[in-house]
Amino acid sequence: MIQRTATPLEVRAQATDINASWQTLLAQAIRDPETLLSRLGLSLEWLPGAVQGHRLFPTVVPEPYLSRIKPGDPHDPLLRQVLPRHEETLSDDEDRNDPLEEAATTVTTGIIRKYQSRALLVLTGTCAVNCRYCFRRHFPYGDNRLSPSAREEALRYLQRESGLNEVILSGGDPLAMNDRLLAEWVRAFEAIPHIKRLRIHTRLPVVIPQRVDERLLTWLRESSLQKVIVLHINHPNEIDQAVADAAARLRDAGATLLNQSVILRGVNDQVDTLCELSERCFGAGIMPYYLHAFDPVLGAAHFRVSDDEARHLCRQMLSRLPGFLVPRLVREVPGGESKWPLDLGLA
Ligand SMILES: *Cc1c(COP(=O)(O)O)cnc(C)c1O
Ligand code: SF4
Predict the structure, then answer these.
(1) Are residues 298 and 247 both part of a single domain?
(2) Whose CA is nearest to atom 7 of ligand 2?
(3) Disulfide: which of 37, 87, 291, 306 matches 302 by Cβ 3.0-4.6 Å?
């Protein structure tokens, strides 16, 4: 039998085996809007707008996340987070490239220090999914890739700053890095006496739960630091059995799991959705932590939910859920000493 070799486009259009390693799932993530639309059986009427958005911030959607999107539904709340749209080319007077003014708080290459007791280390610009509303979509990652000398410099900074007790690994997505490098960083933090806690801000266990493999669990389990993992989940459909199992493995390795979400028009701007999200998180051993009020990111105005509407949604959550399942509604204010809680006032 003569076998025809598949064209590159056909190869990309095929599903990656869900049992593949996380590296393969990441490498073979869908990276063009046409494949994304065709895999979901969606009309190509969405393509021109998607191509426009894609030029500004590339499409990245890994297979395990795609599997939770309902085929044929252009308004699926998970799809809305990852499909580029022509609205991304529109700008609003208030939108800024760096809404949180992080450029001004970079204390040394790769370290953002805004708050007294914790420093945030930007390890990589890579993500396993490109979220269209991302406030880091304009972040100058090119300037923040850590060379060996920058790594030494960053560690010297952490050592010198005895007021710090927590290092936050962020990105991009820090778990996009390989486990050998991550384990080296963690061992270096353990050698600094005033560092008690390691925090990891990541979306990888959600979008590719296969990331939580034995190699990751080994360095995590072995670390003497207290471990907090802050996941990023915006909609209850993002938590399937594989994600719940990955969360259980992380907890077994000694990590406390928290979740932060962003309030997003068309994704989680309904009280039922937000309540279900909290319930599903708790069911998977993940505590709700923050609900971020919308920030004016250039190209993301179509996700905007006003502060008043966000407050109203949170008040309704308070009336339906136990207090521990209601995340704190916060915003980052440039120059603030902490994230700023939005006052819910009286119901
Ligand atoms: C959000 C953030 C933190 C963490 O703040 P918490 O309130 O402790 O979660 C730390 N550093 C920077 C730069 C941040 O943006
Ligand atoms: S995973 Fe996080 S950093 Fe990466 S694109 Fe999504 S929101 Fe932004």
Answers:
(1) yes
(2) 134
(3) 87
Residue type, position 5, single letter: T
Domain's final residue, options 23, 56, 89: 89
159 CA → ligand 2 middle, Å: 28
At 87-110, the pLDDT tens digits run 999 876 565 666 666 777 888 989
Structural domain harbouring 269: 102-339
Q: Which residues line ligand 2 (CB under 6 A)?
A: 127, 129-131, 134, 136, 171-173, 203, 232
Give yes or no: residues 146 and 286 share one domain: yes
> What are 15-74's pLDDT values in tens digits?
778 789 999 999 999 999 999 999 999 999 999 999 999 999 999 999 999 999 999 999
Q: What is the Cα–Cα distance from 81 to 288, expressed in whole angstroms?
A: 20
Regarding the beta carbon of 168 and ligand 1, being less than 6 Å apart is answered yes
The percent helix, strand, coil of the chain (3-state, each to 5) is: 40, 15, 40
328 and 306 co-located in one domain:
yes
Q: Are 226 and 220 in contact (CB under 8 A)?
A: no
